[in-house]
Amino acid sequence: MAWRSSGTSNADLVAQLWRNNLITLPRVRDAFLAVDRAQYCPRAPYQDSPQSIGYAATISAPHMHAAAVEKLIPFVIPPFSPPDADKKKGEPDKEEGGGPASGARGRWVLDIGSGSGYLTHVLAELVGPTGRVVGVEHVPELAAMGEANMQKSAAGCALLESGRVRFVVGDGRKGWAEAGAGAGEEEEGEPNRGLWDAIHVGASAVTLHQELVDQLRAPGRMFIPVDDDDGGGSGQKRGQHIWAVDKDANGKITKERLFAVRYVPLTDGPQRR
Ligand code: SAH
């Protein structure tokens, strides 16, 4: 994944991401244009590289955020309801990246390791008025920082006030169970096989945590960096790859290894150190 999309302003950064085909959908471009990275990234916000945000955390590089959103987009954008009767209700708008229909409610997206809150905000721009995004952070100061960063813009304030986006403190390896929407509950006569249409994990996992897979809706998709298998404990330094984990409408899981990355690890929270 090339780090070649630096810009001189937010609009220029997004233009570079677009030029380099890292952002390909107009709706995704609009969401990135709507969120000024400078409000989330204290230094060199328009450089295409990760930056420190304190507490041993980094805001990921813009091209990584773009890759994550582009991969998750069919499960982030609300299902398309065409105005004309020719098309089937709930049919996805393929050109705009709309994904499979999944019931009447808006999309629910979980952003694990929300850090700066930047991606949480971008995702909230995309889920639509009835969707929700929850950012999970195990460092309370970072959960507060994500929220404070969103409060720097009127649009961010409105998203927080509407409840479309929320930051919570917890161990993201266990996902997040929303009150009143537990896995296993019935919804419109359908078994609710999970909570989240899309799960983004912003720190690397030692394994594909089953609890996260369980919390994925059917259909749903997770974008997660996972440490490479060390080939049986050889002691050699391992790399990481992004995995896209899909759960289809019948609950069948498929995993796709995408590309090599370097993320900070998902760790025990500060309270357990
Ligand atoms: N998406 C964020 C990435 C922040 S870096 C951004 O671009 O700003 C990874 C984040 O994961 C850090 O903020 C770190 O505190 C958090 N993290 C690490 N282990 C975690 C865990 N077990 N549960 C929740 N968050 C965790």
Question: Which features does this protein show?
Answer:
273 residues; alpha/beta; seven-stranded mixed sheet; two-stranded antiparallel sheet; 7 helices; binds S-adenosyl-L-homocysteine
Molecular structure report:
With 273 residues, the protein is an alpha/beta fold. The protein is 24% helix and 23% strand. It contains 7 helices and 11 strands. The chain has helices at 10-19, 26-34, 62-72, 118-126, 140-150, 154-162, 210-215, and strands spanning 51-54, 57-59, 108-112, 132-137, 165-169, 186-187, 190-191, 196-201, 216-227, 240-247, 253-261. It has a 7-stranded mixed sheet with strand order 5-4-3-8-9-10-11. A two-stranded antiparallel sheet has the order 1-2. Strands 6-7 form a two-stranded antiparallel sheet. α2 packs across α4.
Give a quick summary of the entry.
α2 (26-34) crosses α4.
Which residues form runs of ≥5 with pLDDT under 50? 82-87, 182-192
Class of secondary structure makeup: alpha/beta
Radius of gyration of CA atoms, rounded to a whole number:
18 Å
Helical content stands at 10-25%
Strand fraction: 15-25%
Strands in their spatial order, largest beta sheet: 5-4-3-8-9-10-11
Shape, please? Answer: globular
Let me know the average pLDDT: 87
Q: Helix segment count?
A: 7
N to C succession of SSEs:
HHEEHEHEHHEEEEHEEE
Describe the sheet with the most strands.
Answer: 7 strands, mixed
Number of strands: 11
**Which hetero ligands occur in this complex?**
S-adenosyl-L-homocysteine
